[in-house]
Specification:
globular; 15 strands; about 575 residues; 4-stranded antiparallel beta sheet; single chain
Length: about 575
């Protein structure tokens, strides 16, 4: 609202100078103004005039108003300052707005968001953290901005790991009942957590075991008995545990589909690709050439052929008829477009290792028409969470850390912090604080960047941390509980109040930035700035003991607004606030 009004005044004034270019403004970091326009440099170069004179003339042409003060500054800036009347008006509008003044999209889109990356029969580990954290926050952001979002965990439940796990369990005698050798004993999570790592290691050194597992996998995919019934038991047991761990992270999914759900669409997807004339045979397998101009260019040197900008074909079906990871992902896009009409975007959150995979899948879907022309297929690549040594976060022995162990580590760290601060908190408070520390420490980084997992730094109750934002809300709640007075009109009577309203403006603008960039780092930085602005206010003004009742009522309204803005941001970040800290 503010930005558009300022730009309207700038462009109306520019018309008098016969300027055809559209002027824009941005937030300013300069202490003497709140917004600034930097377009006079480019306009002057185009028109062959003095840039500062252009800025001065535009300012002179702007009509007087009570909300904004315009001034020209050398070498050629136009500075804009918000008046106290403007800030008071903004504060009241935001206070009574359901979304605290966030500029939501006029036309929301239907979005299917695929994140999580859990695999059946495998324990969730540190690699599943970032997709779950980022995906959950993006889902909440999109909803706030007006999109209709359907979240799908899309389990890895139809690949070789299923055959490997079953075969290992079979050879250990834990599936005898299924094969008429006695009674079945219920499988446990310990059985699954032990079986897959053993089987995964064996497939790398025992070729016969690997081939047998591939045949076992094919029998599962053909729904042969008892292989498919064993698979169903493993899936049910595994999903139950996956749900518990995701829930502790605050990640909730609308759909618990998987590769197996899309399996029935694989045949139809292959037929569609075949009808488009895209399928080719390669050593008995079926592939689709997806390389574009300048990619996969063969270069032969000394009798050896290499490829510039490698983009191998998308493998659709093995020579033995088995479908692959790419096949089920293509079939999943087909399924989603059949189950939901007019899907605008399908987004995936995974690490960079799957970049080529999704490029191949997306291109195949576009070439075949499985994905409509106007539909956006987006792969959001997340960086890795590293230890203090800069390498992927692992145990001291070099093993991958389980997700449940990380959550336990966070809870223990939060409990120690609470005790050090003289607060007797329970497990619920510790979980909320620990998870907030990890999430904020993750999301304040650009989604594509690696970052260092530093529990001590993340857990601090001051600085750019999740607990600091939580503590700010707890502090506001404490004040509001002590003052029995209704909120009044927000009065702009000091710099601390001014800075809070300006921080809210910047916070609200960050939502659109995050929406476009598919990353929450801008929101994290802005919510910290608002919390810091409130801290400065808190240090200067005693709301509880304020004698002027009009001023006190104004402060109560201000605190209510700040709390709502912080809570809205924390909800997008999927961070809960404990009662005490």
């Amino acid at each position: 609202m503010i930005k558009s009004q300022i730009e309207k005044l700038l462009n109306e004034a520019a018309k008098s100078e016969e300027i055809e270019d559209k002027l824009s403004c941005t937030f300013s970091s300069r202490p003497e103004c709140d917004y600034q326009c930097n377009d006079c440099f480019a306009i002057a170069k185009k028109m062959g005039k003095n840039p500062y004179e252009i800025a001065e003339n535009i300012v002179k042409n702007i009509k007087n108003n009570n909300f904004y003060k315009f001034s020209a500054a050398k070498p050629a800036f136009i500075n804009i300052q918000l008046t106290d009347q403007c800030l008071a008006y903004i504060a009241q509008v935001f206070l009574h707005d359901n979304f605290c003044g966030v500029n939501r999209n006029k036309h929301g889109q239907l979005v299917i968001l695929d994140y999580g990356g859990a695999n059946v029969a495998k324990a969730l580990h540190v690699g599943h953290l970032r997709p779950a954290i980022i995906g959950e926050s993006l889902k909440r952001l999109y909803k706030l901005m007006g999109d209709n979002v359907i979240s799908d965990v899309h389990l890895g439940d139809w690949g070789l790991q299923m055959g490997l796990t079953e075969l290992q369990l079979f050879e250990e005698g834990k599936l005898d009942g299924y094969f008429g050798k006695g009674e079945n004993k219920p499988l446990t999570l310990d059985d699954l957590n032990e079986a897959y790592p053993k089987a995964s290691l064996r497939k790398n050194i025992e070729e016969d075991f690997k081939k047998k597992a591939e045949q076992w996998t094919l029998k599962i995919q053909r729904r042969e008995s008892p292989y498919f019934e064993i698979y169903q038991e493993i899936r049910e047991l595994s999903v139950k545990e996956i749900k518990v761990n995701y829930s502790r992270l605050g990640a909730e999914f609308d759909l618990w589909y998987g590769e197996s759900t899309a399996d029935e669409y694989c045949g139809e997807a292959i037929d569609i690709i075949k009808q488009k004339g895209l399928l080719k045979q390669s050593e008995g397998a079926l592939v689709v050439e997806v390389a574009q101009e300048g990619e996969n260019v063969p270069v032969t040197k000394n009798g050896q052929t290499t490829y510039l900008n490698p983009m191998p074909p998308c493998l659709i079906q093995k020579s033995n008829g088995a479908v692959l990871y790419a096949t089920t992902d293509i079939a999943t896009i087909l399924m989603r477009n059949k189950l939901y009409k007019n899907v605008d975007r399908i987004e995936y959150v995974t690490d960079a290792r799957q970049k080529m995979h999704f490029t191949q899948v997306f291109r195949t879907c576009k070439l075949s028409g499985i994905s409509p022309e106007k539909q956006d297929l987006i792969h959001i690549v997340n960086g890795t969470m590293n230890g203090r040594d800069g390498k992927p976060f692992k145990t001291r022995s070099g093993d991958t850390i389980k997700l449940e162990d990380i959550i336990q580590m966070l809870c223990e760290g939060a409990m120690k912090k609470l005790k050090a601060n003289g607060v007797e908190g329970g497990e619920d408070e510790a979980l909320k604080i620990g998870v907030a520390a990890m999430k904020f420490g993750d999301l304040i980084n650009n989604v594509s960047k690696d970052y260092i997992f530093d529990l001590d730094k993340f857990m601090a109750f001051e600085g750019k941390t999740g607990p600091y934002i939580q503590y700010t809300v707890v502090r506001i709640n404490s004040i509001l509980n002590k003052v029995n007075l209704p909120a009044g009109d927000i009065i702009i009577n000091n710099d601390q109040v001014r800075n809070i309203i300006k921080a809210i403006l910047k916070l609200n603008s960050s939502y659109q930035v995050c929406y476009k960039e598919h990353s929450l780092n801008n929101l994290c930085a802005s919510v910290f700035d608002l919390a810091s602005a409130f801290s400065s206010f808190y240090n200067e003004h005693n709301v509880v003991n304020e004698k002027d009742k009009n001023v006190q009522a104004s402060y109560i309204a201000l605190l209510t607004l700040v709390k709502r803005c912080l809570m809205q941001a924390l909800d997008v970040l999927a961070i809960e606030v404990p009662e005490k800290m």
